[in-house]
Structures are given as C-alpha cells and as structure tokens.
Design brief:
Strand order of the largest sheet: 1-4
CATH class: Alpha Beta
Number of domains: 1
Helix content: 40-55%
Shape: elongated
Strand content: 5-15%
CATH architecture: 3-Layer(aba) Sandwich
CATH topology: Rossmann fold
Number of strands: 4
CATH superfamily: NAD(P)-binding Rossmann-like Domain
C-alpha cells in the first residue's frame, strides 16, 4: 500500500516525497521468498514434523532492511529512469504533510506506514530450511510497480473506504 500511494502522489506532484530524513528502518522480502516460507512450513506440517508454534512459533521472513529514505530514493530513481519524473530528487516533507498527501489526513496512519521501524529476523524460518532465492530482487519492484501503475492506475473503487477522504 505504501508504494502505490507514493507512486500516485509522485505522478500527481512531479516529485517523490519522504518524511523528514527517512531514517526509520523496515525489513523487506520478495513475495516469492515469502511464498517459499509458506511452502517450507506446509511441508513440515504435512509430514508431521514437530515445529515450534504459539509464542515460540512466530515465523518471520526477511532478506534485508532499508530505510524509508532508501525506499523513497529507489522509487524516485525508477520513476525518473522510466521518464515519468523530471528528476530522481526526493523532497523531505513533514509527517503532517505526508498524512495529507498519502493517507487522507491520518497522522497516526502516516507515521505507522511511512515513519516507523519494523525490523524482523527470519531465525526460525531459516532453522526450518527456508532460504531466500530472490534476495535483492525486491529492488526491481519499484520499476515494475511504476510501470504497472502507469498502464493501469487504480480506480477510485480500488481504494479501501477507510482510506478515502470524506
């Protein structure tokens, strides 16, 4: 959701925005690696293996981390290289500005989605045999998503009701 909102804003404003210095950090994973974890878990369960569950069985999937600044910069670079933005510059904005631009005024939502830390480690997942096959492929997502957005932008009906400005 963050990426699509940021693409929409960048295309309408002509520049990618990032909240302040963008020093907060999130873990990331390619969707195909996440699918790989589900396959590993299902195989373990279907073969009757005893695997940690409950409080001791929380399985994370990650292949690295990025700051929100890096995220914004990757988007700006992809959009610039595709010729839809005049530069790859990222404009620093306040949390309140981001709330208005990206989540229809919800400051708490903007902070959670664009200015928070969300860091995980795939310790249990790797112990079960999961491994990343797509590592840094997530970086190509920016170019892919901008291209798809340009060809088929989401319609108003695609925006969840709670995110619409009233």
């Amino acid at each position: 959701m963050q990426l699509l909102s940021m693409i929409a804003d960048a295309l309408s404003s002509g520049i990618v925005s990032g909240i302040e210095q963008g020093n907060t950090v999130w873990s990331h994973v390619h969707i195909r690696d996440l699918v790989g974890l589900f396959i590993v878990l299902l195989k373990q369960i279907c073969t009757g293996a005893t695997i940690p569950s409950g409080r001791k069985g929380i399985y994370f999937c990650e292949t690295g981390e990025h700051t929100h600044r890096e995220f914004s910069k990757r988007l700006a670079t992809a959009a610039y290289e595709l010729g839809v933005l005049p530069s790859s510059h990222v404009k620093e904005i306040s949390l309140e500005e981001a709330a208005e631009k990206l989540v229809f005024g919800g400051v708490s939502t903007a902070e959670l989605g664009y200015a928070s830390n969300a860091r995980t480690k795939a310790i249990l997942s790797r112990k079960l045999g999961w491994m990343s096959l797509h590592g840094d492929d997530w970086e190509a997502t920016f170019r892919d998503e901008v291209s798809v957005f340009i060809k088929s932008p989401p319609a108003e009906r695609d925006i969840p009701e709670f995110l619409r400005k009233h």
